[in-house]
């Protein structure tokens, strides 16, 4: 008998444009896989009313974020729509070593940095059924003003252009179907 993990640890990046449903897919995967874990990102963005510091994000000021970059504490980081976002390195390393699936909900530039540092990571790119549907979902969410939505839609077009750099592209047309497809990809990557 060993005390080691029963299955291989894996970093799974679920990227895709803002509004595509990454958060829901992320939650679906975590609910379906008992040995999966959350990576809590650091950001300079202000919390939304429902968000909790240390759960949804660690909310920090720019100076704190820049100090984390300088100390090499981030596995990846990127500027998105005027704010900084990054993944703390140590928690990811510890969870993967313990055999967990660590799911990162991050944007494209960060996803590509993860692949450079961790070539075994599984990179999933989520796309909406159409661009119109993406705009509809972003507006329906009601968390951003018109200018922020316009910025996110511009970023989305640039992100969608980079989908070829991912291991697999999954259409989020139906949440349950999409989660099932991602779980099958994870199981395949771990076996
Ligand atoms: P939001 O402001 O809507 O929470 O996130 C904006 C974008 O930043 C989303 O595409 C989200 O996936 C991405 N994001 C969140 N955390 C990170 C992170 O740690 N690193 C990177 N590169 N992107 C992140």
Concise structural overview:
The chain has helices at residues 22-32, 62-70, 89-97, 108-117, 131-141, 146-160, 175-190, and strands at 10-15, 36-38, 42-43, 58-59, 74-80, 83-88, 101-105, 122-127, 168-171. With 191 residues, it is of the alpha/beta class.
Question: How would you explain this protein's 3D organization?
Answer:
It is built from seven helices and nine strands. With 191 residues, it is α/β, with parallel strands linked by helices. It has one domain (5-190): P-loop containing nucleotide triphosphate hydrolases (Rossmann fold), CATH 3.40.50.300. A five-stranded parallel sheet has the order 2-7-1-8-9, with helices on both faces. Strand 5 and strand 6 form a beta hairpin. Helix 1 (22-32) packs across helix 7 (175-190). The two termini are 21 Å apart. It binds guanosine-5'-monophosphate. The site of guanosine-5'-monophosphate (5GP) has 14 residues, from strand 5 and strand 6.
């Amino acid at each position: 008998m060993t005390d080691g993990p029963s299955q291989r640890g894996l970093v799974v990046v679920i990227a895709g444009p803002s509004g595509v449903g990454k958060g829901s897919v992320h939650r679906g995967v975590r609910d379906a896989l008992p040995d999966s874990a959350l990576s809590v990102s650091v950001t300079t963005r202000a919390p939304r009313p429902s968000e909790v510091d240390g759960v949804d994000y660690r909310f920090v000021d720019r100076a704190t974020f820049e100090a984390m970059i300088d100390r090499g504490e981030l596995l990846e980081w990127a500027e998105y729509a005027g704010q900084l976002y990054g993944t703390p390195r140590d928690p990811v390393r510890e969870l993967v070593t313990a055999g967990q699936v660590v799911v990162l909900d991050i944007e494209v530039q960060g996803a590509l940095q993860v692949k450079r540092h961790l070539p075994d990571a599984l990179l999933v790119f989520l796309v909406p059924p159409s661009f119109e549907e993406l705009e509809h979902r972003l507006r329906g969410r009601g968390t951003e003003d018109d200018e922020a939505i316009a910025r996110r839609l511009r970023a989305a077009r640039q992100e969608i252009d980079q989908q070829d750099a991912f291991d697999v592209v999954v259409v989020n047309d139906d949440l349950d179907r999409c989660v099932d497809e991602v779980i099958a990809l994870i199981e395949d990557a771990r076996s």
